Amino acid sequence: MRQEDPVATTEAEAIAMHRAVVLAARGLGSTSPNPVVGCVILDARGTVMGEGFHERAGGPHAEVHALRAAGEKARGGTALVTLEPCNHTGRTGPCAQALIEAGIARVVYAVSDPNPTATGGAQTLRNAGIDVEGGLLEDEARAGNIAWLTSVDTGRPYVTWKYAATLDGRIAAADGTSRWISSAESRADVHRLRAECDAVVVGSGTMRADDPHLAVRGIEGAVQPLRIVVDTEASAVEPVARILDDSAPTLIAVAEDATTDLPDVLRLPRAARGLDIPALLDALHARGVRSVLLEGGPTLAGAFVAAGAVDRVIGYLAPVLLGAGPAALAEAGITTITDALRLDVTETVRIGPDLRITAVLSPKES
């Protein structure tokens, strides 16, 4: 639920909250099933005394890191936090209590905590006599934490479909060749996307054509995402496939009745075409996956779209023309223009010679 009208805050608080949003992003890909959170501590004059972010699941929360950095200088100060301080004890203690014990006088947070097991921190702080405001830079903080917020709201991971195509919408030439449509700069950017997600998914067609590795490269300190192959008939992943090495965890999703000797198999119900996508996402959510990067080909992408399981689309468009070859998206249950899935473009960025376009479902679609 959104906050009321923007709160009355100082310029120093607004600057500090922006910094907290930036800090929170450092935790992308390493905190699930927890949210990403950033925190900045100011003294009474608006000077930064400490800052921190939630670095990994099971580790100290952002508020604890910031309070440790500030030490005694936190007493009487203001804490700027991107998410309402938690009010429960899990693998770590409640952040609301830590703020109280540190002598914080004021807490400003961006987004209310929708998790029923953790909410209530703001009221606990108020009950302790701390001045509490919510809603500062809410849109920015919500965007940075959209995967976790979506998972709380829907009970499934947030799915980003990534593809690379020519300007005329082809992902490969007529003879099937596709390396390389996009530039080296775009391919490096994809590794950043992988590092920010909990899982990377491809289908059997991609496995047969490319034997992809799917691990993150070139990102120092990255937590390797779970590599997933949707291989309905258990026929595309060979024992020597690169995805089976030990550089990152791997999961092969197959039909319940498929025969396979491969390790790390997830058996799922069949759908009209392939596997049941909602069942796949439910299983991943149960494993703590909160964000998925879909890198599969047009058939798997079509299955995800048909299942209503794509939240964001990132397309890398290369200044190349082919005139023939497969399109980025195959049959997705859309048969007429009135049923077209409408998106809102949120960003366009030049990546080397390519154009990266990011779009999300328009409000009426979601």
What does this structure look like?
- By secondary structure, the protein is an alpha/beta fold.
- Helices cover 25% and strands 23% of the residues.
- The chain has a nine-stranded mixed sheet with strand order 10-9-8-7-11-6-12-14-13.
- It is elongated, with a radius of gyration of 22 Å.
- Mean pLDDT is 91; it is low at 1-7.
Backbone structural class:
alpha/beta
Fraction of helical residues: 25-40%
Unreliable parts: 1-7
Tell me the Rg in angstroms. 22 Å
Task: Specify the biggest β-sheet.
Answer: 9 strands, mixed
Order of helices and strands: HEEHEHEHEHHEHEHEEEHEHEEE
Strand proportion: 15-25%
How many runs of DSSP E, i.e. beta strands?
14
Count of separate DSSP helical elements: 10
Judging from the principal axes of the Cα atoms, what is the shape?
elongated
Biggest sheet strand line-up? 10-9-8-7-11-6-12-14-13
Mean pLDDT: 91
Cα separation of the termini = 16 Å
Features:
10 helices; five-stranded mixed beta sheet; alpha/beta; disordered N terminus; 25% helix; 366 residues
Question: Topology, please?
Answer:
Blueprint: H1 11-24, E1 38-42, E2 48-53, H2 62-70, E3 78-83, H3 95-101, E4 106-111, H4 121-127, E5 131-134, H5 138-144, H6 146-154, E6 158-166, H7 184-196, E7 199-203, H8 204-210, E8 226-230, E9 250-255, E10 265-268, H9 277-286, E11 291-294, H10 298-306, E12 312-318, E13 343-351, E14 354-361
Parallel strand pairs: 3-4, 4-5, 6-11, 6-12, 7-8, 7-11, 8-9, 9-10
Antiparallel strand pairs: 1-2, 1-3, 12-14, 13-14
